């Protein structure tokens, strides 16, 4: 109790006192002392339920940057310290970058206990990963696709004694869309024991609550924060025409870099191509810019497991450079919107208005973390007003307008548009779109699908769509023709009646 009093938590949630009582290992108690107040409160609510006997399943929905990772790392390490063996805990994440971040946090907190971890993500050497898994690490942090591949193709490791299954960003893992993890999750869950503790966390959980409840094996403890974004986040918008959006972006970055040279900025874009073009354009304006998107190379074949850990390639290298403030501006797709914790990020700019409120929540959650202040600015065109209203309804907060001197933006408009067009031409010369198609084919092959069959299926779907479109057009034409004929008949009837009236008047 003394440790919590030193923290200055006079009215902490009951679960936090319980966690403090149950964390018997001295290194873990010291780490609890170092937690930020926001993280301590999340740990109290969620961690108290997950660490206390008989070990209930948990569904945790908390604001971004509120300490959800600590809420599962510390209880897992406490249980592991009582009976250490491998493989003890499995953590699933939707992105590779988040997997590395979680593994790093496990490594730092678990170092006094001699924790052994293993990262299993795509883009890395499968043989090296198999060797690591065969050494029975205590904690495995993985993306579903690559772990499912190992389960299908290898028998050098077993997940049958797992005590904890943790899904971070659980709503993303369980949603069905462009990246569907359903088949991979079925393979993974089939390899896990029925008796286990399942912990699921996200900042946006309610939309997939029924699916999450079906995954858990016993009556789950559900905890949800009342608000979706933190009070320290200053949420703003700029209403701008689509054609001058880039000029506003350049002006914003110039303003922030002039006023706060130590600030880091993340700019989110809709597509990989936009991400690449904006990176090239901002470099032309001498801004220290780096990019992060799914079309970038992940890693080459590495010689040893040690070098695999120490020498991640382009995507991880770029992220590391941004974290180390070598580059102050990161332009990224939504691959960077989940879970990444970078303390120096003070500003998040949405180059496009997110189509879904939950995407917005995760994007702006990259700043104002762990009690720090931050600013988010969303660029809104005349076509995005309804999206802003949906975001405001979900976050229960009103976005304020960010004041910008339009005359300053118009001064650089021509220069920005010309520079962007130059960058588009340069990118087209590198066959970026063709590489994207090759990348898609590789992804289909990794998913066990035949690219040719998928292409034929798409062609058939396009034909069906075209046929439906033509059918609708024919129906519309037929309806319009009937309406025109009816109007013509009505006109003739009216004309005939007028002629008859005229004839009667003349006869009189």
UniProtKB/TrEMBL annotation:
Cell compartment(s), UniProt: Nucleus, Nucleolus
Record CDD domains: DEADc_DDX49, SF2_C_DEAD
Domain Helicase C-terminal: 232-410
Catalytic activity annotation: ATP + H2O = ADP + phosphate + H(+)
Domain Helicase ATP-binding: from-to ranges: 49-223
Superkingdom to which the source organism belongs: Eukaryota
Enzyme class: hydrolase
Principal subcellular localization: nucleus
Region (Disordered): 473-508
GO molecular function, one term: hydrolase activity
Cellular component, GO annotation: cytosol; nucleolus
Regions of compositional bias (Basic residues) in chain numbering: 490-499
InterPro entries: DEAD/DEAH_box_helicase_dom, DEAD_box_RNA_helicase, Helicase_ATP-bd, Helicase_C-like, P-loop_NTPase, RNA-helicase_DEAD-box_CS
Keyword terms: ATP-binding, Helicase, Hydrolase, Nucleotide-binding, Nucleus, RNA-binding
Keyword Hydrolase recorded: yes
EC nos: 3.6.4.13
PANTHER family: ATP-DEPENDENT RNA HELICASE RHLE-RELATED, RNA HELICASE
Homology family: Belongs to the DEAD box helicase family. DDX49/DBP8 subfamily.
Name listed for the protein in its UniProt record: RNA helicase
Gene name of this polypeptide: DDX49
């Amino acid at each position: 109790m003394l440790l919590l009093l030193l923290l200055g938590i006079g009215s902490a949630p009951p679960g936090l006192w319980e966690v403090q009582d149950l964390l018997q290992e001295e290194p873990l108690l010291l780490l609890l002392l170092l937690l930020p107040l926001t993280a301590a409160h999340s740990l109290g609510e969620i961690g108290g339920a997950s660490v206390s006997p008989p070990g209930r399943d948990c569904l945790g929905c908390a604001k971004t940057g509120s300490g959800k990772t600590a809420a599962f790392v510390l209880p897992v390490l406490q249980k592991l310290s009582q009976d250490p063996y491998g493989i003890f805990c499995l953590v699933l994440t939707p992105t590779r970058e988040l997997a590395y971040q979680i593994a790093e946090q496990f490594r730092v907190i678990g170092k006094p206990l001699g924790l052994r971890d293993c990262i299993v993500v795509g883009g890395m050497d499968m043989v090296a990963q198999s060797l690591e898994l065969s050494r029975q690490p205590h904690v495995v942090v993985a993306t579903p696709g690559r772990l499912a591949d190992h389960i299908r193709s290898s028998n050098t490791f077993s997940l049958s004694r797992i005590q904890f299954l943790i899904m971070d960003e659980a709503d993303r893992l369980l949603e069905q869309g462009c990246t569907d993890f359903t088949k991979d999750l079925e393979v993974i869950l089939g390899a896990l024991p029925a008796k286990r503790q399942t912990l699921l966390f996200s900042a946006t959980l309610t939309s997939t609550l029924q699916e999450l409840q079906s995954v858990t094996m016993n009556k789950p403890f559900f905890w949800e924060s009342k608000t979706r974004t933190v009070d320290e986040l200053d949420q703003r918008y700029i209403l701008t025409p689509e054609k001058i959006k880039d000029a506003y972006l350049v002006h914003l970055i110039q303003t922030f870099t002039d006023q706060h040279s130590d600030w880091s900025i993340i700019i989110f874009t809709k597509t990989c191509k936009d991400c690449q073009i904006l990176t090239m354009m901002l470099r032309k304006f001498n801004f220290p810019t780096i990019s992060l998107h799914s079309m970038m190379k992940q890693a080459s074949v590495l010689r040893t497991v040690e070098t695999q850990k120490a020498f991640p390639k382009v995507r991880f290298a770029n992220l590391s450079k941004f974290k180390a403030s070598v580059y102050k501006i990161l332009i990224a797709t939504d691959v960077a919107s989940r879970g990444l914790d970078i303390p120096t990020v003070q500003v998040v700019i949405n180059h496009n208005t997110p189509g879904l409120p939950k995407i917005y929540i995760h994007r702006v959650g990259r700043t104002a973390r762990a009690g720090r202040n931050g600013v988010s600015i969303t660029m809104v065109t005349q076509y995005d007003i309804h999206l802003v209203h949906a975001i405001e309804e979900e976050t229960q907060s009103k976005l304020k307008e960010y004041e910008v001197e339009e005359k300053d933006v118009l001064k650089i408009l021509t220069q920005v548009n010309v520079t962007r067009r130059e960058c588009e031409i340069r990118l087209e010369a590198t066959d970026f779109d063709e590489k994207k198609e090759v990348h898609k084919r590789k992804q289909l092959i990794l998913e066990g699908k035949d690219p040719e069959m998928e292409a034929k299926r798409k062609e058939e779907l396009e034909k069906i769509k075209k046929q439906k479109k033509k059918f609708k057009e024919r129906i519309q034409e037929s309806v319009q023709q009937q309406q025109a004929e009816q109007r013509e008949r009505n006109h003739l009837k009216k004309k005939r009646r007028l002629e008859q009236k005229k004839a009667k008047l003349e006869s009189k």
